[in-house]
Design brief:
The chain is an alpha/beta fold. It has 4 domains: 122 residues, 3-Layer(aba) Sandwich (Rossmann fold); 175 residues, Rossmann fold (3-Layer(aba) Sandwich); 67 residues, Orthogonal Bundle (Helicase, Ruva Protein, domain 3); 44 residues. The protein contains 19 helices and 18 strands. A 5-stranded parallel beta sheet has the order 2-1-3-6-7, with helices on both faces. α2 packs parallel to α3, α4 runs parallel beside α8 and α7 crosses α8. The protein is flat. The chain starts with 6 loop residues before the first strand and ends in a 9-residue tail after the last helix.
Length: 459
């Protein structure tokens, strides 16, 4: 069967996404049909001969997974390729388990789209068993999804391997990394790759919870437990069910609250505020911190017993400045997302802009890169130039004396290192100038020589 006779259905509520996918496929000679929602898709599946479907799983008022289930009931052999955002990998996991052929991450890549569709059509037209290109084993293999969202550097490959290894266990996981490095993204990948993927993923920003509300937020409260509690409210441990509870920036919890959290993690039981009944909880705990918790333990601000309990498996995310080979990949992904959001087409980076992105140290990591690219897309008409990035210039340093033995700050140095080096330079310059004005004699030595009341040794 020639490609011209192959009919592909593209399902997405966003017209721009449908248009992009259809253009990619029509360019290769496929016939494309479009549907804006699940109901239209099901009508076409019933009435039209189709060879494959590209299905967005997140549509307003429509559960894409339910649409997938209905399609499977109508034609269990029809290949369905899921299209999803990088923050909804759990939908891709569930879809593959429900029989989807493959998944694609937005922004869609032309090569990936065509490869997935061609392989699906080939398998659909043969008698051998269909197999997802990036499918799961029973234990889960979602760690590889990180390369689609974080890059393909060696550091991310190592990170992906760690995610895949720990996901199939029930270990508590501690994720360490600077602000904006992607700790929640890694935690979601762990959840998506685990057998808990079909259960909730509940994220808690520990830094945003006052001590007075900590127990109520995490453990829940009974009606009338305190002023204003007009109804019973389950805590985050209960809401997470048998899924994953992500405790972000856990270092911000006070020591008193740390003791209460430790007890719940160990005993797997909670008591709501104002209640007396012990409730069993089954959520897996994944914690994250942007500070070194071992140092916090040494300083006495974090409990050692809680640290050992949450760090059965530790994952460290390298900052973006240590994996520069991922910067261009991430920048282009963010550019694609922003361009679609703003309705711009044909956007691209100039060579100068790409070099500037790679040369910058990114103290705010991936989050800062994303904001920078989004702003640049808004400012640029077609080509993103260096001036559209709005990145600060390198800080002005004092002129280096050829005799100085202090190295000038290199790109990627931390703020603390830069301040230390500059301070040394300024102090040394000031001392040399002072000695020059006194003929190499220190002021207190001149005072000693002029003094007749006590010997210089007394100084």
């Amino acid at each position: 069967m020639s490609s011209e006779s192959r009919r592909i259905l593209v399902v997405d509520n966003e017209a721009e996404t449908r248009n992009v996918l259809s253009r990619i496929l029509r360019r290769e000679g496929y016939e494309c049909m479009e549907a804006a929602d699940g109901e239209q898709a099901l009508v076409l599946v019933r009435c039209e001969p189709l060879d494959a479907i590209l299905l967005e799983v997140r549509m307003p008022n429509v559960d894409g997974l339910e649409v997938l289930r209905q399609i499977s009931l109508l034609d269990g052999e029809l290949p369905v390729i899921i299209v999803t955002a990088d923050d909804l990998l759990r939908h891709a996991v569930n879809a593959l388990r429900m029989g989807a052929y493959d998944y694609l991450i937005k922004p869609v890549d032309n090569v990936e789209v065509l490869r997935s569709v061609r392989t699906a059509l080939r398998d659909h037209g043969s008698n051998h068993t269909r197999k997802p290109l990036r499918g799961l084993s029973e234990q889960g293999q979602e760690g590889d999804c990180l390369k689609n969202t974080m890059g393909s550097s060696g550091a991310i490959a190592t990170l992906s391997a760690e995610v895949s290894r720990v996901a199939c266990s029930d270990f508590t996981v501690l994720i360490l990394g600077e602000t904006g490095a992607g700790k929640e993204l890694v935690s979601r990948a762990i959840h998506a790759a685990s057998l808990r993927a079909s259960a909730p993923f509940e994220a808690v920003d520990c830094g945003a919870i006052p001590d007075t509300l900590f127990e109520s937020e995490l453990f829940g409260h009974e009606k009338g437990a305190f002023t204003g509690s007009d109804r019973t409210k389950p805590g985050r441990f209960e809401v997470a069910g048998a899924g994953t509870l992500f405790l972000d920036e856990i270092s911000n919890i006070s020591r008193g609250c740390q003791a209460k959290l430790l007890r719940v993690i160990q005993e797997k039981k909670v008591t709501r505020v104002g209640g007396t009944k012990l409730l069993s909880v089954a959520a897996r705990v994944v914690a994250a911190s942007n500070v070194d918790l071992e140092t916090a333990v040494t300083k006495g601000v974090f409990r050692s017993d809680l640290f050992f309990r949450i760090s059965e498996f530790v994952i460290r995310i390298p900052p973006l400045r240590e994996r520069k080979e991922d910067i261009v990949f991430l920048a282009q992904r963010f550019e694609g997302q922003a361009s679609r959001h703003l309705g711009k087409v044909g956007m691209h980076f100039s060579e100068g802009a790409l070099h500037r992105l790679q040369d910058y140290s990114w103290p705010g990591n991936v989050r800062q890169l994303r904001s920078t690219v989004r702003r640049a897309v808004l400012l640029a008409d077609e080509q993103i130039l260096e001036e559209h990035l709005g990145l600060p210039a390198a800080p002005p340093f004092p002129a280096e004396n050829p005799n100085d033995d202090v190295a000038m700050p290199e790109d990627g140095s931390s703020l603390k290192q830069i301040v230390y080096r500059i301070t040394r330079m300024v102090e040394k310059t000031a001392l040399v100038r002072a000695l020059g004005t006194t003929g190499g004699t220190k002021p207190w030595q001149r005072a000693c020589s002029a003094s007749t009341t006590r010997p210089c040794s007394a100084r």
